[in-house]
Design brief:
mainly alpha; 3-stranded antiparallel beta sheet; 15 strands; 1004 residues; 58% helix; 42 helices
């Protein structure tokens, strides 16, 4: 099949099975329509010219017709795979080949015939089902966009035939409603149709009967008199016999005829199961257990109870099919101390035939397209025998644009399905709910309530006790639904995505291009709906390489356009959730919709917390938490762990496209607030991690005091927080540069100092500093350059790039001297002392340490003086004064211990242990080194760990413990090579070589 669908029922449409194909040019569109109206029959050239030009056929018509036919052939070829010629030359004209089921008008008429047959047999449920299928093909008036061609004789006749068929199907569908006793439900749509077609007796007759049988006799008589008046005034005729018979029924006051006696077979309304249901093993087992059913198709029974087996299949269109892992099963707490509600009257003491105690309602929740309906229908089919009194299904349409179905109408339908006559139904919804619960009390019925909007939407439909249960799907968590258990669905795992695509498109095909397959799965984000669309496309395009589809799925380059096929549409699925929130009458939900847009446009790639979101949204932390929870409850953001929220990749792209509702200025202002928050948060983390003697000045105008910032117990916690946020910080740095905000950019880079104290070896800080320096130079930001030179020097020093370190320190010293910043000068001089000591120049190290100490004293910085005490101890150790150095280190350790500054403490302990080695105090030396190593390991400080191992190996070597020395050197070498610590690699190799030269032959 080349072109999968031609559409005449509405505007002219050509589908290739994936997307609509453009048919440009009015003449080409008319030409295609004329051929489609005579599909598979030869249309003469004269007839085609008449269709194109009417009576005014130009002299150049033959050439023009040939050109139009060439363009049409291009459209048809572009819509297929080139294996078949659709448009053939057949004397005396042309013939367009259309396969069975490809033309929507033909498919529609086939459905009309099915409705007619079911109507003749009075199979009312079949009438309703076939009517839905027929009307689902109707997009509007046929050939609506092809006037005046559509108004000419032959096309107009065809349009009339199709329109009349639609109206006839509608009339038959209302016969089914009346035959099933759904008189109340028929009144509203019949009223609208009667008004739209004031002279069509069929609608008026059925409206009269629906009103009469609903107890609204006066309105029924009014409909008759209005119709008779219009017929007499407009056509000069009286109503026909069918209307007169209905009028006679009204005059006689005959009671409404009861619907035909229902079959003794219990109602079974589950939809057909979708193809390729894959995985979801844990979730299936969880739902079955909560429904009181264990094992495949076996009901868990009390002594003397009965079991059973289930089977079958179904999924609401567009819901997707799933496999993967879920967020677990949770019990709702609802109002008051309500846990997972169990049905009364069952359990081990439930009596003969009683099922084990089960949850009254199981809520399967998740984002749109994650496969909620597929899972619910899959399980429902497999537990049906555990519910011998039937399975009721309803799509509650909680997120449909046309509005949700009400509990009032659904209760009427369910009660009718259970045999309760319509004329006994109370008008009040609460009374209907009571009647429904009473009808379920002695039955074992499974209700599948699909697409619930909220707890209030579904609560009146739930059983109150007995052995019935409800399986609910919703995009909301429904956390406030009492007595329910929650089974949230997450996107699919990678293995289950692979299995699903293999099932849909063929395992050999998906194995053939592993890289393209990985790109496709990444683009689909584990969403079953997206994977079904992709699988369907691949199955219908056997010649397509996976790489072609992967390219079309490139994020933010038309990916959402590609993820649409027929009724399956990721964007439309997401829009249902978003629009319901945007248009809500609840202020908090409307605020959440704004947050969703801002997250998508400003920060879609990274998680947020209530603290960072408060800055983005310019609200309090508490309000931000409430907004994020609303989004999480609606599954518009993921909440993988406490207080961290992130957009799913596809939702982020959808949200980013909602840019029509906020101005660019509003989005930029929100981004600046978020970037400024990161500046303040990083400053707090670095202060905790390093106890730095001087922090950068705060941003001008940034009210950081009003922001909620993360709080850290110690340096370890601060460093771990920064490591987690590092991808966001890198992105923030780039965004600051794009905004021209050098003041933000350099502070973000400098703010990574604390993280670098244990992760300098990764090179990430170097890259950020270099990027920020480029931004500062471009904007002639002198203060930014000063701080960046100062921190770049520290980065070089940590990596033992001593010359580069000294160069940047000298530049920084000059810039801060120029500003008269003596605290900065003191810090830089202290760092220079450390570098000189590192290169073995103890004299210059002492000179700079003393100058630094004096400046710290002048500015009253006691913490800085303590830091310099450590520097001086380092100098004394280098100068061969281990006793004095040991005393200084002990004093530093006393000052630092308990301060939460693990990096500083570990450094002091390492140096102290090395001095004790020199002094020959073996046990004390190893105790100090062991404590330092434990701190480094706890903080995941790979560079610091290597430092400790080097000093520990030297200590073992010093005390003649050759095997311990060798093991320590080898352990350090492995670590250094893994993380590319060049200096430590050289030291380890030298240590092992020296060890080999010194070790006695017997190894002792």
């Amino acid at each position: 099949m080349v072109v999968e669908k031609f559409g005449l029922l509405g505007t002219l449409v050509v589908h290739d099975g994936t997307e609509p194909r453009p048919v440009t040019g009015p003449k080409v569109r008319v030409l295609l329509a004329a051929l489609l109206l005579q599909a598979n029959r030869t249309v003469s050239r004269d007839a085609l010219k008449e269709a194109l030009w009417g009576d005014a056929v130009p002299a150049s018509a033959d050439a023009a017709l040939a050109n139009h036919l060439t363009r049409l052939r291009r459209v048809l070829a572009g819509a297929g795979d080139g294996t078949e010629e659709r448009l053939r030359t057949v004397a005396p004209g042309y013939q367009l080949d259309v396969h069975e089921g490809e033309l929507d008008a033909d498919a529609f008429e086939a459905r009309v015939r099915a409705v007619r047959e079911a109507h003749r047999a009075e199979e009312w449920e079949a009438v309703r089902r076939e009517t839905d299928l027929a009307l689902g093909l109707w997009r509007g008036t046929p050939l609506a966009d092809l006037a005046p061609f559509s108004e000419t004789e032959a096309p107009a006749l065809r349009v009339h035939q199709l329109t009349e068929a639609r109206l006839q199907v509608l009339e038959w569908s209302f016969d089914a409603e009346l035959g099933l006793g759904r008189h109340h439900e028929a009144v509203a749509p019949l009223t609208a149709l009667a008004a739209e077609h004031p002279l069509r007796e069929g609608f008026h007759r059925r409206l009269m009967l629906a009103l009469h049988r609903s107890g609204r006799q006066a309105e029924a008589f009014s409909v008759f008199h209005r119709l008779r008046r219009d017929l007499v005034e407009e056509l000069g005729t009286e109503p026909g016999s069918a209307v007169r018979e209905a009028h006679a029924e009204l005059l006689a006051g005959e009671p409404a005829p009861r619907p035909r006696a229902a079959s003794v077979r219990p109602p079974f309304q589950l939809p057909c199961e979708a193809d390729a249901f894959t995985g979801r093993t844990a979730e299936v087992a969880a739902v079955r257990a909560l429904l009181g059913v264990r094992g495949e198709g076996t009901a868990e029974t009390a002594p003397g109870g009965d079991g059973g087996a289930g089977g079958g299949g179904g999924s609401r269109t567009g819901s997707g099919t799933g496999s993967g892992t879920s967020g677990g099963v949770r019990a709702a707490t609802g109002p008051g101390p309500v846990g997972v509600g169990a049905i009364g009257g069952g359990g081990a003491d439930g009596g003969p035939g009683g099922l084990a105690s089960r949850t009254r309602a199981v809520v399967i929740s998740g984002m749109g397209g994650v496969g909620k309906t597929a899972l619910a229908v899959h399980v429902a089919h497999r537990v049906r025998d555990a519910f011998p009194d039937g399975a009721l299904y309803a799509d509650l349409r909680g997120y449909c644009v046309g509005g949700a179905r009400t509990a009032h109408e659904l209760l009427a339908r369910f009660l009718s399905d259970l045999g309760v006559h319509q004329d006994t139904l109370p008008e009040d919804t609460d009374d209907r709910a009571l009647l429904f619960r009473a009808a379920l009390a002695e039955r074992k019925v499974l209700l599948v309530l699909d697409n619930a909007r909220n707890a209030a939407h579904v609560a009146p439909l739930l059983p109150a006790g007995g052995q019935s249960a409800a399986l609910i799907t919703s995009r909301q968590l429904l956390a406030d639904l009492p007595g329910s258990a929650k089974v949230p669905l997450s996107p699919l795992s990678e293995s289950d995505q692979h299995a699903l695509l293999a099932e849909l498109a063929g395992s050999a095909r998906v194995r053939s291009e592993p890289e393209a397959l990985a790109d496709i799965m990444a683009a689909c984000g584990g969403l079953p709906l997206a994977l079904h669309i992709v699988g369907g496309r691949l199955a219908s395009r056997p010649s397509w390489p996976l790489a072609l589809l992967a390219k079309r799925l490139t994020p933010h380059q038309g990916r959402l356009d590609t993820l649409a096929m027929g009724n399956f549409d990721v964007r439309r699925t997401f829009a249902m959730s978003y629009l319901a929130m945007r248009d809500s009458d609840q202020p908090l939900e409307r605020e959440a919709a704004r947050a969703f847009r801002l997250l998508g446009r400003v920060w879609s790639a990274h998680p947020v917390t209530p603290q960072s979101a408060a800055a983005l949204l310019d609200v309090t932390e508490a309000r931000a938490a409430a907004v994020l929870d609303v989004l999480a409850d609606a599954h518009l953001v993921l909440n993988p762990e406490p207080d961290r929220y992130q957009l799913h990749d596809l939702l982020g792209e959808y949200a980013a496209q909602r840019d029509e509702e906020d101005t660019e200025e509003e989005r930029t202002t929100a981004l600046v607030r978020l970037l400024s928050w990161y500046v303040a948060a990083l400053a707090a983390a670095t202060l905790t991690a390093t106890r730095e003697t001087q922090s950068p000045p705060p941003l001008d105008g940034a009210d950081a005091a009003g922001w909620a910032l993360p709080e850290f117990r110690d340096d370890d916690e601060a460093i771990r927080w920064t490591a987690r946020e590092l991808p966001a910080v890198r992105d923030a740095l780039t965004r600051a540069g794009e905004l021209g905000r050098s003041d933000i950019a350099w502070r973000l880079a400098v703010g990574l100092f604390g993280h670098a104290s244990t992760h300098w070896w990764t090179g990430e800080w170097d890259a950020c500093l270099e990027q920020a320096m480029g931004i500062a130079l471009a904007h002639d930001d002198r203060i930014g350059q000063a701080w960046l030179h100062r921190r770049t020097a520290v980065a070089h020093g940590m990596a033992f790039r001593n010359e580069a370190c000294l160069e940047h320190l000298r530049i920084a010293l000059g810039l801060f001297t120029e500003r008269g910043d003596r605290a900065a000068q003191a810090s830089i001089l202290g760092n220079m002392s450390a570098v000189y000591l590192q290169v073995g120049d103890s004299e210059w190290a002492l000179v700079h340490a003393e100058r630094s100490r004096d400046l710290y004293h002048e500015v009253g910085n006691a913490r800085g003086e303590a830091l310099l005490l450590s520097r001086i101890a380092d100098v004394r150790k280098t100068r061969g004064e281990p006793g004095l150095a040991a005393a200084d280190y002990r004093r530093v350790i006393e000052l630092v211990r308990g301060s939460g500054h693990g990096v500083f403490l570990a450094t002091a302990l390492t140096n102290y242990g090395d001095v004790l080695r020199i002094l020959g105090e073996r046990d004390a030396a190893f105790a100090s080194l062991a404590e330092a190593l434990a701190i480094r390991l706890r903080m995941n400080d790979q560079g610091g760990t290597a430092d400790c191992l080097v000093f520990t190996a030297r200590a073992h070597h010093h005390f003649g413990e050759w095997e311990a020395a060798r093991a320590t050197w080898e352990s350090c070498l492995e670590l250094a090579r893994r993380h590319k610590l060049v200096k430590r690699i050289d030291e380890c190799l030298e240590g092992l070589a020296d060890l080999a030269a010194r070790t006695p032959p017997d190894g002792r």
